[in-house]
Amino acid sequence: MAACFSSGSVLACPRVYVISHIPNMAECLKACALPGIEIKSVDVSDVSEKDPVFSEEKINAFKSAEIVVCDGNLLAKIYKSMPDLKWAHCTWAGVDSLIKEIKEKPSFTLTRHSGVAFCGMMAEYVMCHILNCERQTKLCWKHQNSKIWSQDGKISSYRSLDELTISILGVGNMASEIAKILKARGATVFGFARHSRSPNQFGEFDKISNKLEDILSDCDYLCNTLPSTPLTRGILSASVLRNCKKNPVFINVGRGDVIPEVELLQALRTGCLSGSVLDVFETEPLPKSSQLWHMPEVTITPHVAAISKPEHIAEEFFNVFLRYVEGHELKNVVRWSDGY
User: pTM of the full predicted structure?
Assistant: First the structure.
């Protein structure tokens, strides 16, 4: 793996501690680091992911850390044991559960995993499921199972991407990468942001609006990338989705609480939404009692739209590391007051 930055001017670099359940995380960081940067891995193989408890001996192994690459659930349990901590890089993209655990803004800087590779995987997921919906993949599988050869109806009347309008809730790294891959195939892409944007800030978007109705009315697909914050929870409802004139398919790769499940079910049953592709849910794992499991117009995936790969985390971390040692502003810093 190539070094993530080429400067040879990094002097007296602080040791980087790695506290993660992700396999090969430390090895990938070592492969990506310049000579002289020490990577110290803390063994957490005997620490539960669900309810992590650290022994005093293990805490002593990292209590002097200034920089740590750490899973969010572990960081929430141990940050108070690192009084000298200045920068923690979370291996997770979503940090809402971490913020819930850490009630007050900490003294250290927290960055999160949200690099180009991660966002690219998310964009691939969204494009994949748009194409699956347009090409009626579910129906084709059903026909294959019954040995039916049919070119009739929806199977042969699909739309290409350049005929579609996709509205995205959010305009951050993830949304921008989704917009980029869709725009490359000619789609029209709208974005929703809390704050108004001037035309030169649109980037990969055809339009960005701070009014939901502006992007809901004409979309064929509605994709959510928003994090879970007090301002985003419940932002969608069955009544809000009545603004959708084209009965779009809803794709959720952000957080499940953007719409209560009961409201989502109502929107599907009344036809405000013609279908839904869901990777995230209000309650995870999705309970077996959920009615979403039984709806043929719903596709369910178990929160795997994009995964944190150690090689991607390492590359992203060291792209930021040089900025840290040179005293520059870091990228993907978690804004505690905003909740992401």
Answer: 0.92
